[in-house]
């Protein structure tokens, strides 16, 4: 099984950016944790982080041609604004889980909108980096018919 991990804008700044909300660990630590879990669960993972909406759309389209089985995506601020990313996810029909490090539901009103939520297999919020691990497990178990 092949899972792509996509992170949107400002997630390259993890560890520096608002540590009281997003924690002190950096993006490399996130990648390390996910790789370790992928090994444990015997799956293939790829990573993509971009601050650019179109680049994320391009990567999602490429995931289709690369026969990716599942996507874990934290669209970050684009969650709340991007019809283009939601359309790309619909276009490729790859099962995906929406992840947010913070508990977006307890934050500002503008964070209550998600353009991807209705089409996601599931959404994981407020669990820090562990949310990505939970999202991977959701996709792996679903593929195993569990
Ligand atoms: C975020 C929440 C978003 O509202 C915010 O714009 C982010 C990160 C999270 O992981 O909690 O950049 O997606």
Offer a quick outline of the entry.
The chain is an alpha/beta fold and 146 residues long. The chain has helices at 19-22, 27-41, 53-65, 83-92, 130-143, and strands spanning 2-7, 44-49, 70-74, 96-100, 122-125. The chain has a five-stranded parallel β-sheet with strand order 2-1-3-4-5, with helices on both faces.
Write the layout of secondary structure elements.
Elements: E1 2-7, H1 19-22, H2 27-41, E2 44-49, H3 53-65, E3 70-74, H4 83-92, E4 96-100, E5 122-125, H5 130-143
Parallel strand pairs: 1-2, 1-3, 3-4, 4-5
Helix pairs in contact: 2-5, 3-4
The structure holds 1,3,4-trihydroxy-5-OXO-cyclohexanecarboxylic acid.
1,3,4-trihydroxy-5-OXO-cyclohexanecarboxylic acid (DQA) binds at residues 10, 74, 76-77, 79, 100-102, 104, 111.
What is the CA-atom radius of gyration, in angstroms? Answer: 14 Å
Total count of strands? 5
Tell me the strand order in the biggest sheet: 2-1-3-4-5
Shape: globular
User: What small molecules accompany the polymer chains?
Assistant: 1,3,4-trihydroxy-5-OXO-cyclohexanecarboxylic acid
**Average pLDDT rating:** 98
Number of helices, counting only DSSP H or I runs of 4 residues or more: 5
Uncertain regions: pLDDT < 50 for 5+ in a row?
none
The SSE order reads EHHEHEHEEH
Portion in beta strands: 15-25%
Largest sheet: 5 strands, parallel
- Relative helix content: 25-40%
Based on secondary structure, the structural category is alpha/beta
Oligomerization status of the protein chains: single chain
C-alpha end-to-end distance: 15 Å
């Amino acid at each position: 099984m092949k899972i792509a991990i996509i992170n949107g804008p400002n997630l390259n700044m993890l560890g520096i950016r608002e540590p009281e909300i997003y924690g002190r660990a950096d993006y490399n630590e996130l990648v390390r944790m996910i790789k370790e879990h992928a090994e444990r669960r015997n799956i293939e993972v790829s990573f993509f982080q971009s601050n650019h909406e179109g680049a994320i759309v391009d990567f999602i389209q490429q995931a289709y041609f690369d026969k990716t089985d599942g996507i874990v995506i934290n669209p970050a601020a684009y969650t709340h604004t991007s019809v283009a990313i939601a359309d790309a996810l619909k276009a490729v029909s790859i099962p995906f889980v929406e992840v947010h490090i913070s508990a977006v539901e307890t934050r500002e009103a503008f964070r209550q909108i998600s353009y991807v939520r209705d089409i996601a297999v599931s959404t994981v919020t407020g669990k820090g980096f562990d949310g990505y691990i939970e999202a991977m497990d959701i996709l792996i178990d679903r593929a195993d018919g569990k």
